[in-house]
Amino acid sequence: MASNLKPAFAYTVFYVKDVAKSVAFYAKAFGFCVHRLDESHRWGELESGGTTIAFTPLHQHETDDLTGVVQTPTSNQERQPVEVCFVYPDVDAAYKWAVENGAVAVSEPEIKEWGQKVGYVRDPDGVVVRMGSHVNPTK
């Protein structure tokens, strides 16, 4: 591939019910700093290293007309076909903090067969958030 065609991962965009509420939740529950929340509350961004976590309303004419209407789960027995993972040096403490600050507990942290300590929570829109440790590559 030509060097001018190599991508850089820039954004993960969450389509949410309330942009300001989601930005505040992720900042408080997971420890991110707010980079931007526009005055209309139709776009918000968190600082997350080399990429940006962004939030925009579930339904908006700019994207609904072009790419289709965002579908959301109808119950806790369903979920979006994506999850996000945040890595922490102390997964237990981060998990406890997230739950104390509004995340819905799904599964407490435990060591998985692939060697990563992982716990799961849900955000206010039902998005599954994996909270994990770094995974050491196998030799």
Q: Could you provide a short overview of the structure?
A:
21% of the residues lie in helices and 34% in strands. The chain is of the alpha/beta class and 139 residues long. The longest helix has 12 residues.
Description:
- This protein is an alpha/beta fold and 139 residues long.
- It has 2 domains: 58 residues, 2,3-Dihydroxybiphenyl 1,2-Dioxygenase, domain 1, CATH 3.10.180; 61 residues, 2,3-Dihydroxybiphenyl 1,2-Dioxygenase, domain 1.
- It has 3 helices and 8 strands; from the N terminus they run E-H-E-E-E-H-E-H-E-E-E.
- The strands form 2 sheets. The chain has a 4-stranded mixed sheet with strand order 1-4-3-2, with helices on one face.
- The chain is globular and about 45 Å long.
- It starts with 10 loop residues before the first strand and ends in a 7-residue tail after the last strand.
- The model has no long low-confidence stretch (mean pLDDT 88).
- GO terms for molecular function: dioxygenase activity.
- Pfam families: Glyoxalase.
- This is Putative glyoxalase/Bleomycin resistance protein/Dihydroxybiphenyl dioxygenase.
Specify the overall morphology: globular
Q: Please tally the helical runs, counting DSSP H or I stretches of 4 or more residues.
A: 3
Derived structural class: alpha/beta
- Report the order of strands and helices: EHEEEHEHEEE
Report Rg. Answer: 16 Å
The fraction of residues assigned to DSSP E strands is 25-35%
CATH topology of the largest domain: 2,3-Dihydroxybiphenyl 1,2-Dioxygenase, domain 1
Number of domains: 2
Number of strands: 8
Q: Are there runs of 5+ residues with pLDDT below 50, and where? A: none
CATH class of the largest domain: Alpha Beta
Mean pLDDT: 88
Ends distance: 30 Å
For CATH, the homologous superfamily of the largest domain is named as 2,3-Dihydroxybiphenyl 1,2-Dioxygenase, domain 1
| Proper CATH architecture of the largest domain | Roll
Biggest pleated-sheet summary: 4 strands, mixed
- Sequence of strands across the biggest β-sheet: 1-4-3-2
Proportion of helical residues: 10-25%
